Structures are given as structure tokens and as C-alpha cells.
Amino acid sequence: MEIRRIRDISCLVVPQAGRVGRSPGGPVPFGVFDASGVEVAAVTEYLAELVASDASYATVRSYSYELLGWLRFLWAVEVVWDRASRAEARDYALWLGHAPKRTARAGSPAAGSVNAVTGKPYPAGTYAANTRRHARSVIHAFYEFHRQAHGRPLLNPFPAARRPGGEDLNAHRNPMLPWRYPDRPAPYQPKAPRRIPRAIPDERFNELFAAMPSDRDRALLAFWISTGARASELLTVLRGRVEPADQLIGVVRKGSRAMQMLPASADAFVWLRLYQRQLDALVPAGADQPVWWTLRRPHRPLSYDAARMMFGRAQRALGSNWTLHDLRHSAAYRMANDPRMSLTDVQWVLGHAHLTTTEIYLTPNPDELVQRLLAHHARQAENAARHAPVPAPGYRAEVLAALLGPTVLGQGELP
Questions:
Q1: pLDDT, tens digit, 9 for 90 and up, residues 33-44
Q2: Taking the domains of the chain in order of start, what are their residue ranges?
Q3: d(C-alpha 383, C-alpha 371), whole Å
Q4: Which end of the chain is more exposed for a tag (fewer CB within 10 A), N or C?
Q5: Is 336:364 a contact under the CB 8 Å cutoff?
Q6: DSSP secondary structure code for residue 121 in this structure
Q7: Looking at domain 202-362, does it have CATH number 1.10.443.10?
Q8: pLDDT digits (tens, 9 = 90+) for 73-109
Q9: pTM for the predicted model, two decimal places
Q10: Does 101 participate in catalysis according to the annotation?
Q11: Is 181 marked active-site?
Q12: How far is residue 55's CA from residue 257's CA, in Å, rounded to a whole number?
């Protein structure tokens, strides 16, 4: 039997060839182009399938970049996409787990280091497990589509998880029976990390709010922390979906893309009105116009990247590394810890499809847990001092302290 030579992944250089660009016309918004500028037809056909299946704009864009990364690897090892085997899949998994990401800008904190203010680590120098899991899932679906549509390639280089006997998981499953999970993960599938969301402490949030330079930024933070909406959901709100009298603001949910009216704090609407007074005569005021605009001229709708950069400037001033999504975590923790709000109430506000997703916010916040434990130890010491044993009649306290030690009688350490 011939044994294939294992590639030396440590010496492999994958050039940044090709690109993801706008597809020229048609319903597919994106396309993958090779180094010579030719659109990869196999990827475009698969993306058209996603669009026809009502995939969102963000999903199509994300899948395009994942497939571009896989094609770049195949171009580097000189293998055609429909000739890729388990060997290429294995080598890509190895390369993706050890390849360094793009070099950070000068002056950035060291990769993987922990921020002294927040206690959160900075992104590592290699791709995270969730990124590698997503890449594997996208490539697997890409090959499954072509196998079913065209009958090639015969084998998927990233096969699905199967039971030891070769049976497909949940094939012909009885809906009355629980969902079955694989005995072992699929080949080249990284383990899913168990991440506990981090909430911003109240005092840190107050510092962050005070660091915002404009009424627009303060209004955004107030809405994020009071509604629990995702950053992208709030940034796409239209003027006609803001109802200050009822303290409601309408957002389009990321997953279902359904419009939902969310309650917000009164302070958020106060800051919103102060911000709108500055731009009322400078931006369109129609009901179908965006709420959030750039402050610099020419005024344009505020994008996610611009909001992230605004938030990042405040982080650098405070020396912290909170993210926009941490505001959603903080809002969720506040609502989950309110005894007058049920978990299903929190699920509705956050727009979670499954209650199990909301249950992660029942996990104690590490920072708050440490404070509660320290308070517990302080109460234990106070109770011990308050209920110190009293010497029996006929015994002097100073004699017992000399024999048994001063702490036994609650007298503290001797000078």
C-alpha cells in the first residue's frame, strides 16, 4: 500500500490570492474571484442556492470569505477544488490551527494577553476554535451541495459525523424520540469552547458612558444597555420605528429578520432627542430614513464599522477592551438577575429562538461571584468574633489565652 507523503504545513505559504467582490448583476450579492479576476463558478452556484433558500446578506458574505480561504489553500498546494481529498482537509485543519493571523497594527497589545481593567484576554495570534468550526461547516455544506446537484466529487473531504456502524445520525428519526448526538466529533472538527459571557460592571459602564464624546454616542450606549439589542440591529433602526411616548424602538432581528418593538429606558430617549436636535436640519427626516448618522460631513448612515471604531477610541482612553457585544451581555445579565423578570421575558427581549441559549445568563458572573464570596468570608469572620466562647466560671481569660491562644477566645492576635 502506498503511503502519501504528509505536507510540511509549517513551511507552507498561502498567498492572499483572489478576493471576495460584488457579483456583477443578478440576485447573488457576492462572488469569489481567483487571482486572475475570474469568478469561481462553483462558488457562485452554491451562493445562489443560499440566496434562494432565503439566507441573509451577512450569511452569504461570511460563506464567501470562508470558501475563499479554502480555495487559497488549495491554490497553494496546487489541487483543484473537486479533486480535494481527506488529506487536503486534514492539512487545511492543521494549517488553520497554527497559521498566524494578520499582523496587528503597531502598538497593539500582545496577542493572548489579559487586559488589566476588564480581565478579558485579547484575541490570540491564531484562529479561534469557533472560527475553525465555522470554516469546516461551510466547506462541508459546499461539497454536499455539489455532490447532490452534480454527483461530484464522490466523497466529501470534510465528512459528517457518523455512528461507529456507519449509520447517519438522526436519519429517519422518530420525532417523539430525543435528538441523538454523535459519539465522537466529525473529522477535523475542533472542540466547541464553553464561553461564559462577561458583563460590564456598573462602575465600569459609568466610566465608559462618561467617556463618550457626543450625545449620539451616549444615546447609542443607553439604547444598547437598556434594550439588549445587537449592535447591528440597533444601527439599522429607522425614524418611523421610534416611539418616545411609549418608550419603544423597533429593530429587525438578525435571525428571523422580523421587526420587534423593544422597550428602552427613558434616559435613552432623552439622549436621542438631544442628538437629533443637532442634526435635524442636516439629515433627511423621513420615516424611512435611518436614525443614526455620522457626525462629520458629508453625513452618511452610521455603519457597524464606524460604531465599532467609535467604541474602540473610548476603550483606548480607558485602557479597557470591552466590545459592543458585551453591552448586550450586560443588558441580559441585568434582566436575568431581576427577580421580577422571568427567563422567558429575557428570551423574548433578546430574540433567542431557544430558551437554552438564554440560560447561559443564569451562570454567575465571575466578577460578581468573587465579590459575593469575599463578602461571605467577611460575614463568617464577623460571626466568629461575635460568638466567641466565654470562659467558664473560675477561669481567667488571660490564662486561657496564654494556654489555648488568643484567637480561640476571639481576642485577636497578641501584640
A1: 999 999 999 999
A2: 1-102+124-165+181-193, 202-362, 366-409
A3: 18
A4: N
A5: no
A6: B
A7: yes
A8: 999 999 999 999 999 999 999 999 988 887 667 778 8
A9: 0.81
A10: no
A11: no
A12: 11
